[in-house]
Amino acid sequence: MLTELLTGWIGHQRWFAGKGRPVDGLTIDSDVELAPGLRHLIVSVHQAGTRDRYQILLGCCEYDMPDKLRHATIGEGLYDATHDADLTGILLQAMADGRDIGPLRFRHLEDVHIDTGQRSLVLGAEQSNTSLVYGDAYICKLFRRLIPGVNPELEIVSALARRKAAHIAQPYGWIETDLDGETTTLAMTQEFLSNSNDGWALALASVRDLYASLDASASDAGGDFSAESFRLGTATAEVHQELASAFPTGVMEPQEITHLVEDQRRRLTQAVAEVPELARHAPVIEEAYQRVCDVAHKVPVQRVHGDYHLGQVMRTPTDWVILDFEGEPGQPLAERRALASPLRDVAGMLRSFDYAARHLLADHPDAEQLLPRAVEWAELNRSSFLAGYSAGGGRLHGEDAVLLRALELAKAVYEVVYEARNRPSWLPIPLSAFDPGAPANL
Ligand SMILES: Nc1ncnc2c1ncn2[C@@H]1O[C@H](COP(=O)(O)OP(=O)(O)O)[C@@H](O)[C@H]1O
Ligand SMILES: O=P(O)(O)O[C@H]1O[C@H](CO)[C@@H](O[C@H]2O[C@H](CO)[C@@H](O)[C@H](O)[C@H]2O)[C@H](O)[C@H]1O
């Protein structure tokens, strides 16, 4: 039976969020035939009293499964159709046509032309979503785990595209349906940035070059990245200004600031309970949080990226482009859409420079010797990014330094939990944020 096949299959998928916990049951909430041999399913997965919804594209073949699709088998004659380029073209075509198929609505932005002749491949780095790359023209991100509501990435990128903003990947179309009475985004298609590299890969190349040339300083070594950091800072400030123009803005009053700090204190307590190594750093973090209450009186807030780091920015041949305006994964939608200080993104990127500088130290035989160079690289790029941010019109003055420091530490607390859960060997990186001079391998 289909539900049994899917129950056995779903727990092994890269994007399945409930790994490690037994699946108690799976029900099919919606089953729509998109075309002969292609069905779109929404399923509910029940685990220890929780229910999560996922979407599946189900391919059905009457005859033997072609060899090229065997790796995507779900059961006899059934497979994950995201891997079948003969079928995925239907999604692009339906978006271009603006069709409704049963409860699914396929839409495109006004004034765009979609070339429907492109064939797709599943992007290798499949994580919480499945991305289909069509030719080298489009990337269609299928949101696997469904949260009722419009996806913030679609909301933001469409609003910025309407303003003809720079530094974003042009959106083309999306798929939506109604879940719990709310319009819910199922997928989004954007310009695919070919000939581009993500900021994390570029930053690591620079750090590797620096480590390889032991005598040179961070600014003299072959891999100097600071001009890129400056440009990225400017691009970030420009996108923040576009976001402030496209969406409502506000000012956080002292009472709300205190409330926010309380929330961060709660997160810290939870993080310490989960990662006891954090406990010895708690006083430093508490002090930085208290300083915000003492010093910050009015904090401008607006829509922000929310999970900003070097892996979310792409360097095209001409520009920095910012991706994935989805906020912190795992947070409720309302929180991901809430107004916040743009310094939250600045803090995220500053942390990311620290990550890039230190991540190659982990098992490095010369870690102790290289640590001062890592610190120097991070400092140079952090200050270039901030200089670029100011040059691009980003606000960085007076009490902002106090807020920025607290936001950086709050992000590092989030990272400590993230690494403990996902990549325990990386845990020393965010832990070093509280004690920058400590030995590299902590
Ligand atoms: N528009 C795009 N053009 C080119 N590559 C992209 C694009 N969007 C995403 N990618 C690639 O896919 C990777 C993961 O994308 P992302 O949106 O961050 O997915 P996730 O939310 O699963 O982390 C990025 O690091 C980048 O390499
Ligand atoms: O990109 P995602 O939305 O999935 O963000 C999550 O995963 C990120 C890891 O890929 C994580 O970022 C952390 O690691 C990065 C290096 O891999 C580093 O550049 C970031 O500074 C660091 O925060 C992110 O926090 C998490 O939300």
TrEMBL record:
<keyword id="KW-0418">Kinase</keyword>
<dbReference type="GO" id="GO:0005524">
    <property type="term" value="F:ATP binding"/>
</dbReference>
<feature type="domain" description="Maltokinase N-terminal cap">
    <location>
        <begin position="9"/>
        <end position="84"/>
    </location>
</feature>
<keyword id="KW-0320">Glycogen biosynthesis</keyword>
<comment type="pathway">
    <text>Glycan biosynthesis; glycogen biosynthesis.</text>
</comment>
<dbReference type="InterPro" id="IPR011009">
    <property type="entry name" value="Kinase-like_dom_sf"/>
</dbReference>
<keyword id="KW-0808">Transferase</keyword>
<dbReference type="InterPro" id="IPR040999">
    <property type="entry name" value="Mak_N_cap"/>
</dbReference>
<protein>
    <recommendedName>
        <fullName>Maltokinase</fullName>
        <ecNumber>2.7.1.175</ecNumber>
    </recommendedName>
</protein>
<keyword id="KW-0321">Glycogen metabolism</keyword>
<keyword id="KW-0547">Nucleotide-binding</keyword>
<comment type="subunit">
    <text>Monomer.</text>
</comment>
<dbReference type="GO" id="GO:0016301">
    <property type="term" value="F:kinase activity"/>
</dbReference>
<keyword id="KW-0067">ATP-binding</keyword>
<dbReference type="Pfam" id="PF18085">
    <property type="entry name" value="Mak_N_cap"/>
</dbReference>
<keyword id="KW-0119">Carbohydrate metabolism</keyword>
<dbReference type="GO" id="GO:0005978">
    <property type="term" value="P:glycogen biosynthetic process"/>
</dbReference>
<comment type="similarity">
    <text>Belongs to the aminoglycoside phosphotransferase family.</text>
</comment>
